[in-house]
What does this fold into?
Amino acid sequence: MTPASRNPSVRLLQWLLLSLVVLSSACSRQPPRYTGELDRATPWDPALVQALGETPVQNDGRVQPLATLAAFTLYAVHGRRDVQFVAADGQGGDRVVKLSPTEWVLDLWSYPRQSAHYPMFRIENVRVLEQLGFSHDGQTPNFEFLTYAQVMDKVDTLQRLARDYQKKPERLRDAVEGQIVLLWRQLLAYHNLHKNFEELQHDVVVEGEALRSLFDGHERVDLAEILNKAAAFNDFVSKAGADAEAKSRGNLAQLRSFLEAVVRTDGGPGFLPPTKGTDDRSLEWLTVSQVTGKALAGKADPAHVAMIGKLRAAMMGADLDAKAKGWREYHEAVTAVSRDRADASRVATEAYYYRANWHFHGMMTFLAAFLVAVVCWAFPKSRLLWWGSMLMSIGGLGMLIADSWVRCLVTGHPPITRLYDTFIFIGGVSTLTLVIAEFVVPRRIALALAPLLGCLLVFFGRLFEVIDGQDTMKPLQAVLLSNFWLAVHVPTINIGYAAGLAGGIVAMVWILMRALRIDVPDSTLMKSMVRMAYGVVCFSLATSVVGTILGGVWANDSWGRFWGWDPKENGALLICLAQIALLHARMTGMVRDAGFMLVTAATGMIVLFSWFHVNLLQVGLHAYGFSPALNNAVWTGYCVHAGIVGIGLFDVLLRPNPVAANAGERGLAAALPQS
Amino acid sequence: MSTSSAVATATPRSVAALVVDGLGSMRLTVWLLVLLALLTWLGTLAQIDSSTYDVQREYFESWFVLAKLPLSVWGNAIGDTPEGSGFPLRFPLPGAYPVMGLLFVNLVVGGMLRLRWSGRNAGVLITHVGMLLLLLAGFVKLETGYSGMLGLYERGGAGGDRVHESSTFVSFHDYELALLTDKGDTIVERVVPAVDLQAAHGSGSVTLAPEGLPFKVQVHHWIDHSQVVTKGAETPATPVVGGLYLDQRSWRPGEQPKKESEIAGCYVSVFGDGGERFDAILWGYPRAPENRSNYVAAFTIKGQRYALDLRRTTYDLPFAVRLDKFEKKDHPGTMSPRDFRSHVTVTEQGQSTEAQIFMNNPLRRAGFVLYQASWGQQPMGGPPYYTVLEVANNPSDAWPEYACYIIALGLLWHFGAKLLRFLNSSTRTSLLRHDA
It folds into this structure.
């Protein structure tokens, strides 16, 4: 009998637990502190937050729920899915405040003074603080956070530095330069949302009896009031003619300057829906500044003016209830107008998509399936555990399919249109590939690897979503608007990537099992893994080759050339060449089991290069821009792959033909019986 | 005697067999594939610092390449010069052209002729046929295909010089030097491709002696990517002509060089047989579709008017294309186009037909394919717009698509059959057996 301490399954469980403890301690940090008193002491009504989150707005060329706009702006600004900080609870203690993206934008617009002091901008390197002229206590394990108010204090320095550093190619900037440019972009993203309703947050003094009489004798007016009286105001302006400076006209010139400044405000999202043309999705939603322009031309829609009045109440209400009432009325007004619009159902579906969060549930189900599969190793005779893990993996897969399906309904396109989609798709397909491999060769290795790979890829997808900070359902460029090719080429090549990664992970586990002496290459378990990897590589090759050629056929249809040696094309070709070479080398005996598994593991790096790295090279037709965080992630992936392949290579050179010393050292093989 | 003669006759056969063995060897396949993969990887990374076109010529259409490992792919930490061009670590490799050629031969010999033609190998054979067709398509395209662009303004827009209709198109990358002779009612052209003027780079020169004409033309100080600069206090490295000189134009730091954006320039000196001399700067800035005329250098010798024109290589179309209307629709609230298309009229032998060219919907006619490539605005911005159509002539246009179907069929057959055999084999049963 194998002692518990030498049982590989127990050792594996110990390692897993230790890793989880280390990971959770590394990831848990104390939230930053909010200094001062909160203007809003009680939370927003959750029902209002949900309703407002589902309110349609037009942003980046499409109509989407407000929650989507809020979430992606928050990702871009804060790099997290929520805002968390520690604040005084008013009773001498502290409390942790956690805000959802929608709550954050509500604060941004209704409590601008408070939100300006939220610790939003994460600074990872204190040299950034030095360059901006902030004092600091030196580099600590915790990140520093700056508030909007703090950054605005140094905005001139920041702008100057960012402009200088932007002249440098992104990949040649050092960490500090990169972060200063990033901080500048984060500030712009924050500011773009912040400024949307800025003009509603101020009053304008009205001077002169004649002018005041337009506004019921009020000494101060706001934009909403002016727009309400736009007809009388325009009449007043036309009568004043060139005499706007005259004393009898009060401060008309100043008022006009204010309005002209509002009209000049840059676009931003459209919060005011078209009131006509319900079937036309191409109609533009309006901003407050556009409606102001129309009002000054005597063409504003009263419905829009009324909505602006409600927005004003939401911004400047006396207390939380008054502000909430304003938001509620705005939501009702927008919903009433946009209910019959062609894109209303898509907005509702999108709101459901983010609420349902199927991919997150899929990821958690995969994690559970993986843990059950690990337990299954410790109880090898249990069919219940095998089926439990398998069904959970299939369930997780179903959730990813549901996720992709709902996305297709929202975008109106096949499952992959953005880089983000590839994570979910590849996560699902790689899981499916290994699930099938487990059914073909049920040795409980693929049983664990299938959900593990799916879980990791969905996790990385979620990480990418936040790091990238861009709407993942953005409208496509004209060249990509071909559902036929999006449905044929893109999934095929991504199935190739998925199978390549699946083969790679089987090979990496094989290498580690050999190197860590968990099992010997001659065991049926190890042989079955080689066979499994071989089958997966064949599948990957077939889909990669067909997918790559289909890509060329699409390119020929779009650009007039089948092959242009573009980095993305080359990446796909590299996978094909590596796998064809590998299969031919296996046939000739140039590589045997160990060589086959080493190259299969290394092919995982080529998949990484093709799938991701070529997009970061900033050349060719598939350059999606450079991000230091993504670049680091890719290089981390390379290092992990290269490390394992290196270990394997070293092990093969040192021990070309390892033989089991005794039954105990057969280890995991003994724990994984015939199914 | 008989033994030695047998040896003597057997030796040539065995050499031939050895060659066939070598050419058809699967080991050779593996090494060629590895070599091609290495070239592909290096050629991809090389695009960080060079234009795709140059890399294509250097790595993939050449017989030999001095490959560079651009360490700048690692960021600025390793081996970067201040300009970011990377540490010039170079090593010699055969170009992809001979590698793919050899792969073709290897595939024919080893993958077709020497492979046993049996039901078991049917999938492999079909796949190899598809691969051969694919390689052949690439070869035909490389050797016989050509492409370029055609820019046209909307018909009816303002501006008399604007090009609305054309039956020619110009190369994306290549230049030619044209000598125009004014014959009164016609212009006679003689053309020298830029590839024949390579020696005119730097301090070299090329002298052309047009047959039957009373002068010679010396081309010198050729610059691939140039700009014309007004002479100031500086001392230029190139001659000054009429207060102007030609200077090297640089790419901005971090900007990827693009061959199609390069504007070639050169100096020409005309020496008449009677001792006349004429010097000029030729600059290849393309003015069409804004203006059909180019920056030509005109001169007169013995009463005959001539002109020299440095222009992108011009190709004829067997039909004329006229842009009737350019349509562009943006995603709402953005400047990002969701659709842009050209409504054109194609006239061939007096017959006119209307067509629409837009993304993923090219126009195929008389062996040419016209694609919607780009668009632009008038110099002052806004409409009328002009369209840029890519024009390609490729005899093997549809071959890759056929190859794709053949390969898909072959792989499905081969791997499907293998999977079925495995599922019913004793190998699978033995793999499921627990080790003793």
